[in-house]
Write a structure and sequence with these properties.
- The chain has 14 helices and 2 strands, in the order ααααββαααααααααα.
- By secondary structure, the chain is mainly α.
- The chain has a domain of 194 residues: MetI-like (MetI-like fold).
- The protein starts with a helix and ends in a 7-residue tail after the last helix.
């Protein structure tokens, strides 16, 4: 196992190198107006002692944009290896400081939605498979297909229309209410929690459909296996057949799907956070790409690449944990 992990880590480094190189090439190829716009804004601020041309030269030199693609990329990579990702052009603060400021909102939302998806989708998928062609099965199938088919912006809009506009239970956008500054610590906590309800519900609805359908399909395949028929023929209780024999084997493909969701826990929900005005990492990354904030965009995409590679590595390791028959050669 140790040898396998070492090989996979080496492969992950190679993939990360080429992934970030491609991202850098795309950022390098952006129109120069982005850098010029940022330089003009910096030069026009009170107390600025540099002209726009001086700022352009400094920004290009800082991120290797004044060199060729490969020399510029290695300049960025050497700085990134030391933890120096520069300053966000749109937020005028160090990239790492902005990351620490916004990541926890995204993580809390993603983690709660992830657990809700698991606790809702997997039991319903198993129940639908056990009661195939019943009303329960058809209901779960229809709900899962609706969840898969509806885009995020549609779900968010419907929730805001019902619970914000019609019922007035929640605010349309933002993370704080009008009276936030006058509340005590507990009041501020619950006020912010209330603003996260609809975004979390949106993420849950969008995510449960595919997981529910995936669980049902794999559970049906396992329930029709010979060893399950043998367990039933021996007179084992149905609950033990499902929990001990069938569900354990259903977990193997589910681990692949759940392991791939790791980037979503830390990577933020770009569309959901933007629609609800939640200032998480997805919100800032969207505006960074929109405004041509190269430092933060490079950091964010590199961060997502690491999470994706780490998620795949964890998935492979969990195979052996879930099923002892699976061993890495």
């Amino acid at each position: 196992m140790a040898k396998f992990i070492a090989k996979r880590l080496g492969l992950c480094l190679i993939i990360f190198f080429f992934a970030t190189l491609i991202v850098y090439i795309l950022e390098y190829s952006l129109p120069t107006s982005y850098v010029e716009k940022t330089a003009l804004e910096l030069s026009s601020r009170p107390g600025s002692t540099k002209s726009a041309q001086e700022w352009i030269a400094e920004l290009n030199a800082q991120y290797g944009m004044d060199k060729g693609i490969l020399p510029g990329y290695f300049t960025w990579l050497s700085n990134a290896a030391r933890g120096n990702f520069g300053d966000s052009w749109s937020q005028t603060m160090p990239v790492t400081e902005l990351f620490h400021k916004c990541i926890w909102y995204s993580f809390v939302m993603g983690l709660i939605a992830w657990f809700l998806q698991i606790f809702i989708a997997i039991p319903l998928g198993v129940t639908a498979a056990r009661k195939q062609y019943s009303v329960t099965d058809y209901t779960v199938t229809v709900v899962s297909l609706i969840g898969i088919s509806m885009p995020t912006f549609f779900v968010a809009t419907v929730l805001k229309l019902i619970f914000s506009v019609k019922l007035g239970w929640f605010e349309l956008v933002g993370m704080q209410g009008r009276n936030y500054a006058t509340l005590d610590a507990a009041g501020k906590f619950w006020d912010m929690a209330a603003h996260l309800v609809l975004p979390i519900v949106t993420l849950t609805i969008v995510g449960i459909g595919s997981l529910m359908r995936y669980t049902r399909t794999n559970m049906l395949e396992v329930l029709n296996a010979d060893y399950v028929r043998t367990a039933r023929a021996k007179g084992l209780p149905e609950s033990k057949v499902i929990s001990h024999h069938a569900f354990r084997n259903t977990l193997i493909p589910l681990v692949t799907m759940l392991g791939g969701s790791l980037p979503g826990l830390f990577g933020g929900a770009l569309i959901t956070e933007t629609l609800f005005g939640i200032r998480g990492i997805g919100y800032y990354s969207y505006h960074a790409m929109e405004l041509g904030d190269i430092p933060f965009t490079m950091f964010y995409l590199a961060f997502i690449s690491i999470l994706t590679l780490l998620g795949n590595l964890i998935t492979d390791i969990l195979y052996a944990v879930v099923d002892p028959r699976v061993r890495v050669n």
